[in-house]
Amino acid sequence: MTEHRIFSMPFARVYPMYVQKAERKGRTKDEVDQVICWLTGYDKQGLQQQIDHENDFATFFDQAPGLHPNTALIKGVVCGVRVEEVDDPLMQKIRWLDKLIDELAKGKTMEKILRS
Question: What is the pLDDT of residue 3?
């Protein structure tokens, strides 16, 4: 199994990019946080701790309280890759997060993004 560079990248380094991407399209940091918390099970405080500790993506997902049961409903293409076909479990979680942020930036309703 190949070790992807993003696995060891601090989540705190990518997080501001998620926020910027959403804000450029008129969404808010709170909505980004809501999406991340929905996916990972973190509460706002837990998410902030991950950012403060500058944990890498591997640790960020390892320490996540629990992935949302509806993650199987996250489908589509990110960076030319179908998220539902990603073999590596950690890479799939990262792609799910990318997909959710993309949907937020594209103006989808929170109800649709959160697979309600």
Answer: 74
